[in-house]
Amino acid sequence: MKYRKKPVVIEAFRFKIDDVMPDWFNEKRITNEIITHDDGTCTIRTLEGVMKADYGDYIIRGVNGECYPCKPDIFDKTYDKVEE
User: Fold this and answer.
1) For 5-49, what is each residue's pLDDT tens digit?
2) E strand or H helix at 77, and its extent?
3) Are 69 and 53 in contact (CB under 8 A)?
4) What is the pTM of this model?
5) DSSP secondary structure letters along 28-40
6) CB within 8 Å of 44: residues ≥ 6 apart
């Protein structure tokens, strides 16, 4: 069988490249769900375990408020920008 991903709007930003980190990211840092490191990376506790985000990776906030990293090439193939 084949399936199509439902069109869902998510929030995301590029780690350390975008000027401002969103409030939801900073809130996850306060609760230690996300830990930033001096080498420009961060670790994120996800439903699948701890994942590492490198400088320039996208950090995505999912439909249930969960966060996870995504490499830019995969992000570009998966998501289109939504005009507000």
Assistant:
1) 888 899 999 999 887 899 999 999 999 999 999 999 999 999 899
2) helix 72-78
3) yes
4) 0.88
5) HHHTTSEEE-TTS
6) 28, 33, 34, 50, 51, 52, 53, 59, 67, 68, 69
Which one-letter DSSP state was computed for residue 66? Answer: -
SS3 73: helix
The structural domains of the chain, with segments of one domain joined by +, span 11-78
The full DSSP string for 1-46 is ----------EEEETTTSSS--HHHHHHHHTTSEEE-TTS-EEEEE
| pLDDT of the residue at 4 | 86
CA pair distance 28, 24, nearest whole angstrom: 6
Say which residue the tokens 């809130």 belong to: 27
Q: Which helix (H) or strand (E) holds 53?
A: strand 49-53
